[in-house]
Amino acid sequence: MKLFTFKPGGVHPDEMKITKDRPFVRMSVPAVVVVPLSQHIGAPNTPTVKVGDHVKIGQVIGSSTAFVSAPVHATVSGEVIAIEPRPHPLGKNVQAVVIKNDFKDEWFEPPQKRDLDSLTKEDILKIIKEKGIVGMGGATFPTAVKLSPPKGKTIETLIANGAECEPYLTTDYRTMLEFTDKVVDGFLVEMKASGAKQGFIAVEDNKRDAAEKLENRLKERGVKNVEVVLVKTKYPQGGEKQLIKAVIGKEVPAGGLPLDVGVVVQNVGTLKAITEAVLEDKPLIERGTTVSGTAIKNYGNYIIRIGTPVTHIIEQTGGLTKKLRKLIFGGPMMGLAQSTVEVPVIKGTSGILFFGEEALEMAPQDESPCIRCSRCVDHCPMGLMPLLIDHAWRRKDMKLAESLNATDCIECGVCSYVCPSKRHLTENIRSAKQAIIKQRKIEAAKQAAFEKLKALREKQEKEAAEKAKSASPSTEKGGKENG
Ligand code: SF4
Ligand code: SF4
User: Fold this and answer.
1) Contact 147, 188 (CB under 8 A)
2) Phi, psi dihedrals of residue 32, rounded to the nearest 5°
3) Residue 281 sits in a domain of what CATH number?
4) How far apart, in whole angstroms, are the C-alpha atoms of residue 394 and residue 428?
5) In this structure, are 385 and 275 located in the same domain?
6) By the 8 A CB rule, do 398 and 439 touch?
7) Residue to mutate, 366, 368, 374, 389, ligand 2, most ligand atoms under 8 Å from C-beta
8) pLDDT tens digit string along 273-323?
9) Count of structural domains within the chain
10) Angle, in degrees to the nearest 10, between helices 171-178 and 268-278
11) One-character DSSP codes across 249-299
12) What is the 472 CA–ligand 1 centroid distance (Å)?
């Protein structure tokens, strides 16, 4: 197997993959699930059920007609007891459908097996959309949209992302080991749906056993155009742009997308979900999640229903071993700190990490002045100059931040991690990015309003001219008659 990596930048944080050898355990389903209506990047869903309705597993409970969207489904059978704003892992309260479980586990439509040969590309994309599949590595971009390139773009290469470079997380590793066939099937389904000619499954070299298992399975099944490749264990090896550069040597242009170089990258957990949706007719109602950290008793990998609150997870894993000081959804580098244990598992929850006192060391510390050591520049995987973007943000000079390509930051946290002065680089660059994007939206809205006004004026002028034109012959005629 070939070994690749990206350059420049990256770091080697302690792996802390203490759940690596713990196979998936199916977690019991809670008495009440809280299913947020928005669990993807794109237009929010509106509820398709009302309080008092009886729902069954797999029933659509929220949807949208927007192109960039993904429906959500009931994850238990039971009664809808509320539709109201509830804490969401992304930080705000978001409209959620609250279902009281009747523990009958009744399906809305019993799933039926399908054969890939009987499906067209259009069938596959339709099913992926209907089953609510989104990127499960954490990005939550609707998968059907990712596989539908705009006019003029084609998907030539698919890359399955099995890097899982964040410390602590092992759900992708266990998925590759325990659901090898589902990962392979999902890849083949995607190849058919996208028309890609070649494919790679990229696995970090600290997971060689998973890579070998996938390689053997591809050989046994006679798959020739998909290759398993090893990528060096380095953070953020699993970043889309880093993975593309490492595996096929192509650079996604600044401000661009993988599609600009003909590539789609898909997390291995998403591939498993695609198999279950397309070949087994199951919507996305559960996912594999690593439950880990220093403050949880029975850390491990669990298959958890979407909408399961953290309180239930704590209870089912034997409770906390110490006072909880930090709760993170995702990995410690890019994950999101939570302010309440009421938040539920959503489609993008790859990990839930529990930490005690020691987490205070991980929290942003008091900053010291920048000593111009350039470590942040040397390690930035996007080739940015974090210290200068940070400086621009502090001066509120967004033009300068924009010229320094702040919007290309992937928020990987590497610059903050290596900074000896503990500067809050990632935090400030994220804020600069948001400010630039907001400004761009305002400019775009202004431009759209201007264009609208211009079009209206042109229409009025045209109408006035036509009116004058239609009036003028009769005047001329009248003139002649009068003369
Ligand atoms: S957070 Fe952004 S600026 Fe900092 S190292 Fe990562 S990509 Fe570079
Ligand atoms: S790593 Fe920190 S101290 Fe060094 S140049 Fe960057 S911001 Fe300054």
Assistant:
1) no
2) -140, 130
3) 3.40.50.11540
4) 8
5) no
6) yes
7) 374
8) 999 999 999 999 999 999 999 999 999 999 999 999 999 999 999 999 999
9) 2
10) 50
11) ---PPTT--GGGGTEEEEEHHHHHHHHHHHTT---S-EEEEEEEESSBTT-
12) 67
Q: 119 with 270: CB under 8 angstroms?
A: no
Question: pLDDT class for 364, splitting at 50, 70, 90?
Answer: low
φ, ψ of residue 177 to 5 degrees: the values are -75, -45
Rounded CA separation 271/289 (Å): 15
Among candidate residues 286, 311, 335, the one where a domain is terminated:
286
Asked if residue 8 has a cis previous peptide bond (ω within 30° of 0), the answer is yes
Residue 318 lies in a domain: no
Give the distance (Å) from ligand 2 centre to CA of residue 427.
14
Residues 249 and 122 both lie in one domain? yes
Contact 127, 277 (CB under 8 A): yes
Q: Do the Cβ atoms of 86 and 34 come closer than 8 Å? A: yes
d(CA 345, CA 454): 48
Do 269 and 390 reside in the same domain of the chain?
Answer: no
Phi, psi for 4 (deg, rounded to 5): -125, 165
- Nearest ligand, CA 423: 2
Whose tokens are 């598992």? That residue is: 345
With beta carbons less than 8 A apart as the criterion, state whether 439 and 407 touch: no
Output the CA–CA distances (angstroms, integers) from residue 320 to 42, 270, 304, 363, in the order listed: 35, 30, 18, 20
Q: How many CB atoms lie within 10 A of CB 16?
A: 18
Q: Is the CB of 387 under 6 A from ligand 2?
A: yes
Domain that holds residue 221: 3-28+108-286
pLDDT digits (tens, 9 = 90+) for 431-453: 999 999 998 888 888 888 888 88
Within a domain: residue 372? yes
Helices (H), 397-424: 398-403, 414-418
Q: Is residue 56 part of a domain?
A: no
End position of a domain, from candidates 255, 286, 317: 286
- Would residue 119 count as lying in a domain? yes
d(CA 393, CA 416): 15
CA dist list (Å): 426 to 15, 37, 355, 358: 21, 29, 21, 21
What mean pLDDT is predicted for residues 116-134? Answer: 96
CB atoms within 10 A of CB 156: 16
d(CA 301, CA 25): 6
- State the distance from the centre of ligand 1 to the C-alpha of 393, rounded, in angstroms: 14
- pTM of the predicted model as reported, rounded to 2 decimal places: 0.89
Q: In terms of domains, do 278 and 375 share one? A: no
Residue 388 Cα, ligand 2 centroid: separation in angstroms?
9
Say if residue 280 is in the same domain as residue 372. no
- The answer to whether the CB of 319 falls within 8 A of the CB of 153 is no
Contact status, residue 323 vs residue 297, Cβ threshold 8 Å: no
